[in-house]
């Protein structure tokens, strides 16, 4: 791997790589929360109930989660560019299936394909960051990636509600499919594969380990399971709120229309956008031990969930909006800090594999809690 000095001075293409991955990653967050905004349209179109809708929505997360070890392994072996491009095309196919779905069952198939396709973006993105950027900036760049991703969650609130009302949700998904194909082509023709010029002299010893040995080394590390459990709980709750129930909750509690409720829902991804890079930078530059930062963030998050669960009418619309933003900020900050902790304990050669083994846990948390 190149030294940090070389990476900083000789690899300006790293910003092209990062920019393209961020652009595609926006769609990952977009798809996570689309069902929250068009939930009433889907209920009417398929004549179904909330439980079936929740199951359909959760298919995204199950497929996303199951494939992550494979995606991580392929990111280490084939490189991030190939994985991101191919998986993006699968997501585009899923958008078409979802838009054409005649029933909730077919919608679940389309949702599953979307989840499988966008599941090949984040882990390769982490691998690319570990290749093109110095290790002292892993938390910052990971936070920026997560922050940019939340632009997709913002687009999936008021703008998506407007598009669904103007074009219809089916035509909207066809347009999203075309956009996904376009971004995949940009990734294929513009992004370069990383070339490890210093590999003969600085290749880490772990790079020579077979897949089984590398996976066992990661899975038998105590830190891995602690981080995984925290991911499961934090992301399960926060993304279930953002992705499925935030807008209907506001509509029911305060008798709001969908467009206005979805506009308020944008507070969640805005908070996430701010919290992820800010806490990533704190972890890289301020805190020598991230445990204290995590304890502080978890304490505030616990109080926030209590208030949102038991005091929403007392707090009113303004208070609930503020709590949405705080949940997003804390979830983004905790997620970035947890990822930075895991990355700091992993050699570059197996960064993709570690990320692929870790990433199912936040996704499983999202799927389980959305289906409850």
Question: Care to give the gist of this entry?
Answer:
This protein is mostly helical and 372 residues long. The chain contains 19 helices and no strands. Helix 2 runs antiparallel to helix 10 (169-190), helix 4 runs antiparallel to helix 5 (80-100) and helix 4 runs antiparallel to helix 18 (351-358).
Structural overview:
The protein is mainly alpha-helical. The protein has one domain (about 5-195, about 210-370): Growth Hormone, Chain: A (Up-down Bundle), CATH 1.20.1250. Helix content is about 85%, strand content about 0%. It contains 19 helices and no strands. The chain has helices spanning about 5-10, 15-35, 40-45, 50-80, 80-100, 105-120, 120-130, 140-155, 160-165, 170-190, 200, 210-220, 220-255, 260-265, 265-285, 290-310, 310-345, 350-360, 360-370. It is globular and about 55 Å long. The model is unreliable at about 1-10 and about 200-205 (pLDDT under 50).
* Level-1 CATH class name: Mainly Alpha
Judging from the principal axes of the Cα atoms, what is the shape? Answer: globular
- C-alpha termini separation: 45 Å
Structural class: mainly alpha
Which radius of gyration do the C-alpha atoms yield? Answer: 20 Å
By CATH, the superfamily comes out as MFS general substrate transporter like domains
Strand-helix topology:
Elements: H1 4-10, H2 13-37, H3 39-46, H4 50-78, H5 80-100, H6 104-118, H7 122-132, H8 138-155, H9 158-166, H10 169-190, H11 199-202, H12 211-219, H13 222-254, H14 258-265, H15 267-285, H16 291-310, H17 312-344, H18 351-358, H19 360-371
Helix pairs in contact: 2-7, 2-8, 2-10, 2-13, 4-5, 4-6, 4-18, 4-19, 5-6, 5-7, 5-10, 7-8, 7-18, 8-15, 8-17, 9-10, 13-14, 13-17, 13-19, 15-17, 16-17
């Amino acid at each position: 791997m190149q030294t940090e000095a070389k990476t900083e001075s000789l690899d300006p293409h790293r910003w092209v790589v990062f920019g393209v991955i961020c652009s595609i990653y926006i769609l990952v967050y977009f798809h996570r929360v689309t069902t929250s905004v068009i939930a009433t349209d889907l209920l009417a179109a398929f004549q179904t109930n909330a439980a079936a809708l929740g199951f359909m929505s959760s298919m995204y997360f199950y497929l996303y989660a199951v494939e992550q070890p494979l995606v991580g392994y392929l990111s280490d072996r084939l490189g991030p560019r190939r994985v991101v491009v191919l998986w993006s095309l699968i997501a585009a196919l899923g958008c078409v299936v979802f838009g054409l779905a005649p029933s909730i069952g077919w919608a679940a198939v389309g949702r599953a394909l979307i989840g499988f396709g966008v599941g090949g973006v984040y882990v390769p993105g982490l691998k690319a960051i570990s290749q093109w950027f110095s290790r002292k900036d892993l938390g910052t760049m990971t936070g920026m990636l997560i922050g940019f991703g939340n632009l997709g969650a913002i687009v999936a609130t008021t703008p998506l509600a407007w598009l669904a009302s103007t074009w219809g949700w089916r035509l909207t998904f066809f347009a999203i499919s075309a956009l996904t194909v376009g971004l995949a082509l940009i990734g294929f023709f513009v992004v370069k594969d990383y070339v490890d010029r210093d590999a003969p002299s600085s290749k880490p010893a772990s790079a020579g380990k077979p897949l089984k040995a590398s996976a066992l080394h990661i899975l038998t590390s105590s830190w891995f399971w602690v981080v995984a459990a925290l991911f499961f709980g934090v992301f399960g709750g926060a993304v279930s709120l953002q992705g499925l129930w935030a807008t209907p909750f506001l509509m029911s509690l305060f008798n709001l229309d969908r467009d206005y409720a979805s506009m308020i829902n944008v507070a969640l991804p805005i908070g996430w956008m701010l919290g992820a890079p800010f806490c990533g930078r704190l972890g890289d530059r301020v805190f020598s031990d991230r445990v204290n930062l995590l304890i502080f963030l978890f304490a505030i998050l616990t109080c926030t969930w209590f208030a949102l669960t038991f005091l929403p009418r007392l707090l009113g619309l303004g208070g609930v909006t503020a709590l949405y933003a705080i949940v997003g900020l804390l979830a983004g900050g905790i997620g970035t800090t947890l990822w930075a902790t895991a990355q700091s304990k992993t050699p570059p050669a197996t960064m993709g594999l570690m990320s692929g083994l870790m990433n199912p846990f936040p996704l499983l948390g999202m799927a389980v809690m959305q289906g409850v």
